[in-house]
Each structure stands twice: as C-alpha cells, then as structure tokens.
Amino acid sequence: MSYPEPRYLGASGEVNAVFRGADTAPELSSPSGNRTHYLATHATTGGEFGLYKVDLGPGAPGPKTHFHRSISESFYILSGTVGLYDGDRWVSAGAGDFLYVPVGGLHAFRNDSDDPASMLLLFSPGAPREEYFEQVAEMARRGGEEFAEFLVRHDSYFVE
Which of 14, 26, 53, 77 has the lowest tally of Cβ within 10 angstroms? Predict the structure, then answer.
C-alpha cells in the first residue's frame, strides 16, 4: 500500500493548524454529567475525520446496538470503565483500551459503573455528527417516523 495522492501541492507549507486548549468548555453538557467536546469536526478537518471527547456520567446508558453504513467508529478510553459492545460480547474497557468498529460493524457503549468515565470517539470519514449529538435525545423523545428519518439521515441503524 502506498500513500494517497498529494492534496497539497504548494512548495513551502501553510499556517493552517487548529489548536484547542484543554480548558475549552464542552459543546454539550447534561445534568447527568455527560459532556461532549467537539475536538475536530467534519468542518475543521475538511471531512477527513471527526474526533470527540465524551465524558459519561455514572450509570450513563449510551446508545443501544447499532451500525453505520458510511463511517467507521473508534473508541479510546481515557479514564474510568466503559462497557463496549463489539457485536459479539460486552467488554469492560479501561484507560488505554481501544475498539475499532469498521463500517457496518455492530457496536454499543455504556457506563455501568458508579464513577464517571471519559473516552475519545473517532469517526472516519468525518461525518457531521454534531447535529446528531445535539438532537438525538429530543428526537428519541418524539419518536415515530420523525425519529426514524433522523436516524437514517445520521447513518445510525439500530438493531434489537
């Protein structure tokens, strides 16, 4: 395998890096202690990837088993214990553990513990996941066809 074709053809490089300080407030917060930090969105990476830090409060349920048709998803645990479902079994993942879910792979996550947990989520390519994170709880509350269309629009296919 070789490197992809060059996309930057300049001779001297550019000043175009994007810095985000550790003290930047999360974009989403909930009373349950869940927080989502938009580290690198599809907009800031030109669609190459999306990287999010997700802080789960104690007992946070997370999404049920699902898959994506157009994006892979990776999980890297920073702290605490996160239950990760790899399509076959649940694993109690701790700091430093990693799960890669290829396109079409069944997966889920949750925090069954009484302590907070934190992880990185990486989506590739960088789909616009921000609207999903911001609206999924409200759309689930509404339910019905509107929720079903929302899930399809955000490449999320839940199974039971």
Answer: 14
Question: What CATH number does residue 48 fall under?
Answer: 2.60.120.10
Q: What is the dihedral of CA 113, 114, 120, 121, to 10 degrees?
A: 60
- For residue 87, which of 70, 115, 68 has the smallest C-alpha distance? 68
Name the DSSP letter for residue 3: P
Bridge partners of 53, per DSSP, are 37, 120
Any domain includes 145: yes
Whether the per-residue pLDDT at 35 is higher than 90: the answer is yes
Q: Where are the beta strands (DSSP E) in 10-156?
A: 28-29, 35-40, 50-56, 66-67, 72-79, 82-85, 90-93, 98-101, 108-110, 117-124
Q: Domains in the chain: how many in total? A: 1
| Predicted local distance difference test score (pLDDT) of residue 75 | 98
Band of residue 59 on the pLDDT scale cut at 50, 70, 90: very high
Residue 66 has pLDDT above 80, yes or no: yes
- Alpha carbons 132 and 146: distance in angstroms, whole number: 13
